[in-house]
Amino acid sequence: xxxxxxxxxxxxxxxxxxxxxxxxxxxxxxxxxxxxxxxxxxxxxxxxxxxxxxxxxxx
Length: 59
Fold this sequence. Notes:
single chain; mainly beta; 5-stranded antiparallel beta sheet; 5 strands
């Protein structure tokens, strides 16, 4: 399996492709495919980077 989010670093902004109502989130950590993101409307969520490809946000 391939980590679809290996390029993400703490501080980057992302959205979850299947949860648009969560809003924009900020990556807190990315360790061995486990990405912790603090979303504006959902709070802190740990995402499996092998199953979900987060979408970077460039403002």
